[in-house]
Amino acid sequence: MMFGTYERLDVHVMASDRAVIRAALTKLTPEAKRSRDRRLARHAFLRLMLGYHADARRLYCRVFSGDFSEETR
Fold first, then answer.
1. pLDDT per residue as tens, the chain (73 positions)
2. Is 26 contained in some domain?
3. Are 20 and 50 contacting, i.e. CB atoms less than 8 angstroms apart?
4. Which of 36, 39, 47, 48 has the most CB atoms around its CB within 10 Å?
5. How far is residue 19's CA from residue 37's CA, in Å, rounded to a whole number?
6. Is the CA virtual torsion 18, 19, 22, 28 positive or negative?
C-alpha cells in the first residue's frame, strides 16, 4: 500500500525505530502533524512504516545470515 513511501524515507535497514519515526514525520504536512483529528491516522501511518521497517530488517538479517531454507519462508 505505502511501501514506496517507506522506501523514500531513506533510512538504513538497521536504523532504529526512532529514526524511522523521525523520517516518517518529515513526510507529513504540518497540519497533519499537529491536528488532533488526524491523530489516529497519523499513528496508523507510523505503525505501517515501522511494520515495513521490521519486514525489511528481517529480510536483511535472513539474507546476510545465509538462511535460505524453506522453513523460514
1. 689 999 999 999 999 999 999 999 999 999 999 999 999 999 999 999 999 999 999 999 999 887 766 555 5
2. yes
3. yes
4. 48
5. 25
6. negative
